[in-house]
Here is the input.
Amino acid sequence: MTSEDGREARPGNAGAGRGVNLKSAEAFVFPVRVYFEDTDAAGIAYYASYLRFLERGRTEWLRALGYGQEALREHTGIGFAVRSLAIEYLKPARLDDELLVVSRLREVARVRLVFDQRIERAGALLAQASVRVACVELKSMKPAALPRALRQTFGCLA
Amino acid sequence: MTSEDGREARPGNAGAGRGVNLKSAEAFVFPVRVYFEDTDAAGIAYYASYLRFLERGRTEWLRALGYGQEALREHTGIGFAVRSLAIEYLKPARLDDELLVVSRLREVARVRLVFDQRIERAGALLAQASVRVACVELKSMKPAALPRALRQTFGCLA
Amino acid sequence: MTSEDGREARPGNAGAGRGVNLKSAEAFVFPVRVYFEDTDAAGIAYYASYLRFLERGRTEWLRALGYGQEALREHTGIGFAVRSLAIEYLKPARLDDELLVVSRLREVARVRLVFDQRIERAGALLAQASVRVACVELKSMKPAALPRALRQTFGCLA
Amino acid sequence: MTSEDGREARPGNAGAGRGVNLKSAEAFVFPVRVYFEDTDAAGIAYYASYLRFLERGRTEWLRALGYGQEALREHTGIGFAVRSLAIEYLKPARLDDELLVVSRLREVARVRLVFDQRIERAGALLAQASVRVACVELKSMKPAALPRALRQTFGCLA
Here is the structure.
């Protein structure tokens, strides 16, 4: 059940108990487990797996604010595309590790969001990233203004 | 903290609240969310993604019994390798779906486990699979007898 | 440049030199290299990676017959969805292995194809699979009759 | 067949015909096809897929110089771990696209390599990245000096 702007009727319920949504400028924390699928023959998490973890963190952050991406697409035709990112890999994650993806919205502009994200294990920082995301009209993949409701929601967080 | 047979001191704690471990012959249920990483350009979950979900189900089943795979490897040198599987794809999973992976151990032999697994969404069956897994000595990838403790644990479930 | 039925003007050119398209009932052979992305912490190719390799084999088989899937989608709205598969993993593939995906169309029906596929390394059989694929109308994911031109092309091969 | 430093007897043969190894400071070009596995529900290549493509480019660059990573590991115990990367996504890649991964070694130090990499389609730049890679002792994942032979080989290219 979603309203016309793509906001789900029961915001964040699906992620409840899994993500912790701190208020305002604070960080959103989402747990991720490392499975075989995430590792490689060097015995550690493959470097592209971290980008999958980071996206789960951003997706659950958005869901905790009440917006599922599939519902957004259906109701507004917009979505998000990563425009650039920089990531530092500090310590390797390993099979069975339980990681935390810590996401913080640093900047909101008309068509753009910038996130600071960290991947941690038991308090140790494994990776940190800065990710620039554009709001796009999904059919054309062209930049689109953030829907007003999202911008207001995000504006309170950055 | 793990004992000598690779059993974790606090069985299943990491999965607590996420997997539900039913007793004996009953099924183990683990939730999985569909993210962009799992989908493809046809707009649905990619067919290989289901194998990743199934493995998460088996891994969390094992963890709920007290065995992490990384700890098993360190302490016993053994692990599990899929020998064969058959899967039917009945209905597509889509972005943002919350799925349940339902795993049931059907058969235990000296070096082999057979699982029946299902992927469900809100009560609908999306996929069902039968997966034959061998216990292997990880260095050589040769078949190895299941450690006695595991076999006893599994024996009560099949 | 594609014709109205989605057949590319220069059939198979992009795959030329990489796949070998044998006539009629014979097998189509496509090479695949094992990279870190395909492996896991057990030091071997992850079991879901084989499904990615098998799909590359089927996709390049189709391309060698003159049909790109993106062009098919644009021109006919149809695509292919795997309905079921059975796979046996006989020997592990490892990092840097150069594999051959050997694909053979076993059966063609109005809305369905069945493939026998093998993954080989230097003459050794690593995995074998049987894959049932449905022709679907991509918007609805409902079964659709194979376009006549494809059926004629496939009919000569099975 | 590999020599003691892990160099393959027939340098680059496996990549022959697929990668083009330009001399000295010039770029190494490796083709990559976009399959369903690489795409997501937005209809384009998933943002982490580009990291897989970039790694294939670096791996084939190394192979063209005569070094397979599996052979390196066996003979020297060393490997490569990405320490950081920055990537810009300029235009989306789509299903069936044939891409070129263009890799150029920009810097060689005692334990570190820096690559400039681009992903192109028919002359259009889709993505560009800078990737810092450390030479590591694989058992410990600690930094290790590049083997002398590699350093000499690389030194002529940067």
